Automatic annotation (TrEMBL):
<feature type="domain" description="Cation efflux protein transmembrane">
    <location>
        <begin position="17"/>
        <end position="221"/>
    </location>
</feature>
<feature type="transmembrane region" description="Helical">
    <location>
        <begin position="80"/>
        <end position="101"/>
    </location>
</feature>
<feature type="transmembrane region" description="Helical">
    <location>
        <begin position="163"/>
        <end position="185"/>
    </location>
</feature>
<dbReference type="GO" id="GO:0008324">
    <property type="term" value="F:monoatomic cation transmembrane transporter activity"/>
</dbReference>
<dbReference type="InterPro" id="IPR036837">
    <property type="entry name" value="Cation_efflux_CTD_sf"/>
</dbReference>
<comment type="similarity">
    <text>Belongs to the cation diffusion facilitator (CDF) transporter (TC 2.A.4) family.</text>
</comment>
<protein>
    <submittedName>
        <fullName>Cation diffusion facilitator family transporter</fullName>
    </submittedName>
</protein>
<keyword id="KW-0472">Membrane</keyword>
<feature type="domain" description="Cation efflux protein cytoplasmic">
    <location>
        <begin position="227"/>
        <end position="303"/>
    </location>
</feature>
<dbReference type="InterPro" id="IPR027469">
    <property type="entry name" value="Cation_efflux_TMD_sf"/>
</dbReference>
<dbReference type="InterPro" id="IPR027470">
    <property type="entry name" value="Cation_efflux_CTD"/>
</dbReference>
<dbReference type="InterPro" id="IPR058533">
    <property type="entry name" value="Cation_efflux_TM"/>
</dbReference>
<keyword id="KW-1133">Transmembrane helix</keyword>
<dbReference type="InterPro" id="IPR040177">
    <property type="entry name" value="SLC30A9"/>
</dbReference>
<feature type="transmembrane region" description="Helical">
    <location>
        <begin position="12"/>
        <end position="34"/>
    </location>
</feature>
<dbReference type="Pfam" id="PF01545">
    <property type="entry name" value="Cation_efflux"/>
</dbReference>
<dbReference type="GO" id="GO:0016020">
    <property type="term" value="C:membrane"/>
</dbReference>
Amino acid sequence: MSDLLSRVRDNIVLYGALAANLGIGIAKFVAAGITGSSSMLTEGVHSCVDSLNQVLLLYGQKRSRRAPDAAHPFGYGRELYFWAFVVAILIFAVGAGVSIYEGWLHIREPEELTDPTVNYVVIAIAFALEGTSWTLAMREFAGAKGEAGWWQAVRESKDPATFIVLFEDSAALAGLLVAGIGVWASHALGDPRLDGIASIVIGGILAAVAVLLAREAKGLLIGERADPATIARIRQMVGAHPGISTVNHVRTVHTAPDAVFVAISADFDDALTMGEAEPLVERIEAELRETFPSLKSIYIRPERHDDAPAGFAPPRSPGR
């Protein structure tokens, strides 16, 4: 039970966004059916796609927690990155595609709108709910980013769930503003085609967000290094041991948001025997794991400094 509660707390952003989008989506479809608004229908599709996205991210998180096995010795952490990429494709193909297509249909065959009051009420309620979800995502992301800038934090983040929800909610709020303007302009100017144009603009917003998320998810799926400060600290710790002459390179890759594989090439002191080198490696591994719990797999390769691959041989450690 405590494990379940812990997971709910960890995924509060996803659960909050899912609950908001389900309720908002139903309300938008009802409003679109009553008033005939193209932009409201588009927003309803948008909310449904967002709801499916949250379900996929929750599913990806569950699958990524599976323990390593013979087929996947480094675990299943990257499965979350795969589903994050699928989410970006859905936003582009379904969310943006349907929005632009619906807007084009409404421009080609304009449909007179009825009383917009229902639309305004739904937009106001949706804005409040989306704003709540956005605030949760913003607080979560702000706490995780530390002192890094916002864009830098997105580029460096290894947990796509939080920044995907943040971007989705930001796009949703922008879409609601565009939908509200489209509904108002259609009635104020007596031209229902403006509502279709608003739908196309919403599709453009979703397409831009989808491309951005796909780019970030692709980098995570291919494999990204650990934080540069972490890599520098690992190099310093390994090079500080008396039996190490030079640290040739430290290569890392995230196998999950909180799991890192590190491969270290080091030039050992020629005077060390095999019996002395083995406990030295064990001590280095123990120190690294204690300092960086995220290092789930550590591989240390003895390699002469002159034999290290070109481009990966830094200056010798200070004092050595």
